[in-house]
Amino acid sequence: MKAERMKVDRMRVERMRGERMRAERMRAERMRVERMRGERMRAERIMVERMRAERMRAERMRVERIRVERIKGERMRAERMRAERMRVERMRGERMRAESWLL
Questions:
Q1: In sequence order, what DSSP letters do the residues of 22-83 get, joined into one string?
Q2: What is the pLDDT of residues 75-103, one digit of tens each?
Q3: How far from the centroid of its chain's Cα atoms is residue 73's Cα?
Q4: Which of 17, 31, 57, 58 matches a 20 to 30 Å C-alpha distance to 50?
Q5: What is the pTM of this model?
């Protein structure tokens, strides 16, 4: 009778140990999955941040290029106007000299 009870107790202890080990394995697996999900989310977040930074930099460069082009255009226009003014002044000067010659 005592041997039977010891055998039952031993079986119960074994079963409990097996359940405990299975529970521990499941917990470890769940933690691993959680950690992987966390790492994946962090990687995605970093990637999204990097892409947004890249887009913003591209936009800033585009705006800067447009600004530079506009300034260059304005400078060229101002240069052309100055050249035209100088030409007009020179022509007026020549005409005045020619007229003073005639007098």
A1: HHHHHHHHHHHHHHHHHHHHHHHHHHHHHHHHHHHHHHHHHHHHHHHHHHHHHHHHHHHHHH
A2: 999 999 999 999 999 999 888 888 887 76
A3: 31
A4: 31
A5: 0.46
